[in-house]
User: Fold this.
Amino acid sequence: MERAIFEDEHKAFRESVRGFITTEALPHTEEWEAAGMVDRGFWRRAADHGFVAFEAPEDCGGLGIHDFRFNAVVTEEVAYAGAVGDNFSLQNDIIVPYLLEYTDEAQQQRWLPGVVRGELVFAIAMTEPGAGSDLRAMSASARRDGDEYVLDGSKTFVTSGIQAELVIVAARTSQGGGREGFSLLVVEEGMDGFERGRKLDKVGRRAQDTAELFFNGVRVPAENRLGEEGKGLEYLISKLPRERLSIAVAAVAAAEHALDLTLEYVRERHVFGQPVGSFQHNRFTLADLSTQTAAARAYVDACILALNAGRLSAAEAAGAKALTTDLQFQVLDHCLQLYGGYGYMNEYAISRLWRDARVQRIYGGTNEVMREIVGRSLGL
Assistant:
């Protein structure tokens, strides 16, 4: 089905991204999964092609493009190729908005050119061992000492935590209640007291390096604070809808890719003398999944346009994230079942897609929290 939200420039961009992912990422998927991270050379090549931080202003090396449809194209093409490349959504969809909106000119000139060139990778550290989706429960703290903050605490489940040169850390800087009292500090590689823990061994997303980080009396210059002191939690919450929409975009694209793979398989695989897909139960299952995915796609596309117009609400993004990631796992589980025993073999792409799908319902805020957000928006 033709998607009306895209114009000719997006379609041309899609062809470019698709060609790059097919030649530069797809052949290395197994290698990167075994290594537990994507090669930085790939990231620099992606930057050379203009696929990284294209929202950055031209004086920082970017293109100044503020149109989430381009972000969606990159995310979708990674999913459609069945390649690994989660860092695109982290850097482009999550990190860059902080660097554009909560930095002064000097900070942008320090950091954005390196990000645009693929030389600097950022991570963002919110989650703590004792505080998951409840951001207000964060206990990492930073006290002001002259022109510095002294940062103490730990973070976990930090995507790109092993490779990142810079980490945006959310920490309590005062004892104010509600949204007050938290700030965002950029910790740089090599600062005394900044330690990386183990690279976490995950069920899926194996090429996405995820780490524990520790901050023991790290002295962070005040010039490394993003935005105003005490506004950190407000900044985080304001950017969550975009992050959740990015997750939703990836979820629908992964479901579409899984359906394409499975339709091809069930047409060719024969059981009891006929194609697996020709059994009525299997036809009906795939018909339902295809229709539900198309409906989810329409909702996500509407959310993309709403974000571009500055009208995407927290509840709409939360609903999109919960709907699509639940559907993604449902699609992948049914698709793997249709592969039979072969679906459980790592040599088949469907097995990795199934493993990778599970975390989508957890990160970015668990789907239970997403439903709380939607429910409260209904006045309940």
DSSP finds eleven helices and ten strands in the chain. The two ends are 37 Å apart (CA to CA). The domain at 8-120 is CATH 1.10.540.10 (Butyryl-Coa Dehydrogenase, subunit A; domain 1). The CA atoms of residues 127 and 155 lie 6 Å apart.
